[in-house]
Specification:
Elements: H1 8-36, E1 39-44, H2 51-65, E2 73-79, H3 84-90, E3 95-100, H4 109-117, E4 126-130, E5 147-153, H5 160-163, H6 165-169, E6 173-177, H7 189-199, E7 204-207, H8 216-224
Parallel strand pairs: 1-4, 1-5, 2-3, 2-4, 5-6, 6-7
The chain binds magnesium ion and zinc ion.
Length: about 220
């Protein structure tokens, strides 16, 4: 026997009040960022999709090719535990803060407000926020960033877009990472692209390999546009 039970209504009712508080603080954060002239990007994606690697590559490109000084770039990394990703990004010399959520599976805007207090906001021009690896609930908690970047892992299958339509719909840019190994694992990247176009026709889509360096320049141009 099988069947589908849609639980959407109950879940929405429970989350509504938390969501409203989060939204209010997110718009305050946006105001602070705008007044300081900072462009902020939130990266979401499942565990191991390569969010940190994509951010690392883009920051390297911005510093070496686009004339950004390292102190002008900030990074806030959310993880359930450890500061491994932040240590990696901090090696680039940028301002990097780790948020350990203590078990929580997504970042909320109060995390960002707290992290911003520990950054030298006056020298920042760009802010990269890496959400906890999770394709579901980060979607429902805006963090005040100007653009949302969804990092999809081309190596984990062609069904990521159709299984997470809400997340795909709520992002501005889709980065399909690891395209260099898609063939080897039998994944058709063009199917991911066409599914993504259908679900979110407005999103800009980039085929990337953070490991090899494919597509990073084009993606960086989009962030700066
Ligand atoms: Mg990471
Ligand atoms: Zn969550």
């Amino acid at each position: 026997m099988h069947g589908v039970v849609e639980m959407v209504y109950e879940t929405i009712k429970i989350n509504k009040s938390i969501g409203a508080l989060n939204e209010r603080l997110a718009s305050e954060i946006r105001k602070v960022l705008d007044e300081a002239g900072i462009r902020a990007f939130e990266f979401l994606g499942g565990p191991g999709a390569g969010k940190t690697s994509v951010i690392e590559r883009v920051i390297q490109h911005l510093i070496s090719e686009k004339g950004f000084k390292s102190k002008e770039i900030g990074y806030i990394g959310g993880d359930v535990a450890t500061s491994l990703d932040t240590e990696r990004i901090a090696k680039l010399g940028v301002q990097a803060i780790q948020i350990n959520t203590g078990g929580m599976c997504h970042l909320e805007s109060h995390h960002i407000a707290t992290a911003l207090k520990r950054l030298d906001v006056s020298s920042l021009k760009l802010l990269f926020i890496e959400n906890v690896g999770n394709l579901v609930c980060p979607t429902y908690f805006r963090l005040g960033a100007h653009k949302r970047v969804l990092v999809l892992d081309a190596a984990t299958g062609e069904d990521k877009v159709v299984k997470h339509p809400q997340t795909v719909r709520e992002c501005n840019i889709i980065v399909i990472n690891k395209v260099d190994i898609a063939d080897a694992v039998g994944v058709n990247v063009d199917k991911l692209v066409s599914d993504a176009r259908r679900v979110n026709p407005r999103a800009k889509i980039f085929k990337v390999s953070a490991k090899v360096g494919i597509g990073i320049r084009e993606f960086a141009e989009e962030l700066l546009s």
